[in-house]
From TrEMBL, chain A:
Signal sequence coordinates: none
One MF annotation (Gene Ontology) recorded for this entry: 4 iron, 4 sulfur cluster binding
Top-level taxon of origin: Bacteria
Gene Ontology CC terms, in alphabetical order: plasma membrane
Span of domain 4Fe-4S ferredoxin-type: 21-51
Name of the protein in question: 4Fe-4S dicluster domain-containing protein
UniProt xrefs under Pfam families: Fer4_17
Lineage: Bacteria, Pseudomonadati, Thermodesulfobacteriota, Desulfobacteria, Desulfobacterales
Automatic annotation (TrEMBL), chain B:
GO MF annotation: an example: CoB--CoM heterodisulfide reductase activity
Pfam family, one: CCG
Domain named Cysteine-rich: residues: 3-87, 149-234
Annotated gene: hdrB
Swiss-Prot/TrEMBL keywords: Oxidoreductase
Enzyme class at the top of the EC tree: oxidoreductase
Protein name (record): CoB--CoM heterodisulfide reductase subunit B
Length: 189, 280
């Protein structure tokens, strides 16, 4: 994707621009010491270190932030938050970047966003997560046969251990549907 | 002691043995667990990546149900991710009365209201600080003598809230393990992240993370965990076979409870070396 596309997509969503401005404000006192990067267990898998990404956030380089996988690789282990000498809420800010990426529906994060969506749909429908059906819906949503195939071995193992419980999908508004609706309305007020 | 019990979704599915062994262990220790009636998902990792408000509403619904059941009891949570979500929501609600009012508007039609009075506690917090160590020592009769255990804590029961243990160098499992007669492996990987859910979407991350952790487990006879996600990752990506058990499974076996009742036939790793030790 062209970097300008990310800027254009963002420009069309003032709510997300505001959200990003909040993240930037949270990070305002970052001194770029790099403690987050050296503490992060997943840093070696990232195309940009956390320190560099926070710098990109602070300098409004949203194209850099959202063309990288860095925040999606945050495992929410909270080591950076614990060690940050400025006491910045780094892990929560990572989650906020995921929220923006989810709302932008960028192609490069397709697998992660489809996974989260399947998960949330599952909660709305049943109240509790039904792992088997959630994964089935995720597989349908990513539309890539390699994805379900990569889980086959694991699925067989779990089935042999009687850990997977297939249920018939239920139709209708869902167990927590009304609660989800009220939560959305509450935010729009 | 009595507790309100919040199992969480994975304990009904892939971490079913964690649920079985928790219930069996607490029964054996003489504690009473009351399930929070009609509990629903806490939002797991997904809610906070999708919708910040919903990531408070979902745990708040469960806290409201707990308060309706009994305001004097603590909520006991075995899953580290559920624990963090419930605890975080409680903290946010206590600190932000405007947020609490908004959440209560959403809950009101279901005749629920949250005050965030009830305390949220991780299973390990309860076991390590409410007197279980002495009772385990009494009942275990050194059954695990000569056994070496690597305690694995993972992340979210330790961080960001340093509630019951040191988030960098955790030790709260040590006394429980020693109470069974076993020795504790001296290692520094107990609080190192296993990759959590990134191991599911990016398996190469899980493989590398778990490889690093289990390499350090060296000659330990077993690894013991307190989180369904850690358990799954440590069992899935083993560079060489190591038995991985949930802490209540290990303590239950040390107390002489049957492997079957503790769900020991459901572990993905080969835990026969541990079972044969208890049988002999």
């Amino acid at each position: 994707m062209h970097l300008t596309d990310i800027r254009e997509k963002l420009a069309a969503r003032p709510d997300l621009t505001r959200h990003l401005a909040q993240v930037k404000e949270q990070m305002a006192t970052c001194i770029q010491c790099g403690t987050c990067s050296s503490s992060c267990p997943n840093a070696r898998f990232m195309d940009m270190t956390p320190r560099r990404m926070w710098r990109a956030v602070l300098t409004d380089r949203v194209d850099m932030v959202f063309s990288s996988q860095t925040f999606m690789l945050c495992a929410s282990c909270y080591v950076c938050t614990l060690r940050c000498p400025r006491g910045l809420p780094l892990t929560d800010a990572m989650a906020e970047l995921k929220q923006v990426a989810f709302a932008l529906d960028l192609d490069r994060f397709r697998r992660s966003t489809r996974f989260y969506r399947a998960f949330m749909d599952n909660i709305r429908q049943y109240g509790r997560v039904r792992e088997t059906e959630m994964m089935a819906r995720y597989f349908l949503a990513v539309k890539d046969p390699r994805v379900p195939m990569s889980y086959t071995g694991m699925g067989i193992k779990l089935m042999a251990k009687h850990k997977l419980h297939p249920h018939f999908p239920t139709l209708g508004p869902g167990r927590l549907g009304p609660l989800f609706e009220r939560a959305t309305q509450q935010q729009e007020q | 002691m009595d507790y309100l019990y919040y199992p969480g979704c994975s304990l009904e599915g892939t971490a079913n043995e964690y649920d079985l062994s928790c219930r069996e262990l607490f029964k054996a220790l003489g504690d009473c667990l009351t399930d929070i009636p009609d509990w629903t998902c806490c939002g797991a990792t997904a809610a906070q990546c999708v919708d910040a408000f919903l990531s408070v509403v979902l745990p708040a619904r469960n806290l409201a149900l707990a308060e309706k059941t009994d305001t004097d009891l603590d909520v006991l949570v075995p899953c580290s991710a559920c624990y963090l979500n419930l605890k975080k929501a409680r903290q946010d609600l206590l600190e932000n009365s405007a947020l609490q009012a908004r959440v209560n508007q959403v809950l009101a039609p279901d005749e629920l209201a949250v005050n965030a009075f009830v305390r949220v506690r991780h299973l390990l917090d309860v076991l390590s600080r409410d007197g279980a160590v002495d009772r385990v020592a009494e009942l275990a009769e050194n059954r695990m003598k000569g056994f070496v255990v690597a305690p694995y804590y993972g992340c979210q029961c330790l961080r960001p809230f340093a509630e019951f243990d040191d988030p960098e160098q955790p030790r709260s499992m040590d006394a429980l393990i020693r109470a069974t007669g076993a020795d504790v492996l001296a290692w520094d990987m107990g609080g190192v992240c296993c990759g959590a859910s990134t191991a599911t979407t990016k398996p190469q991350v899980g493989k590398e993370r778990v490889g690093r952790i289990l390499d350090q487990a060296g000659d330990a006879h077993a690894v013991v965990t307190v989180c369904p996600m850690c358990q799954m990752n440590l069992e899935r990506f083993q560079p060489r076979p190591v038995p991985v058990l949930y802490l209540p499974q290990f303590l239950g076996l040390a107390l002489g409870l049957s492997g079957k009742s503790l769900g020991c036939d459901m572990n993905l790793s080969d835990i026969r070396p541990v079972l044969s030790r208890v049988a002999s």
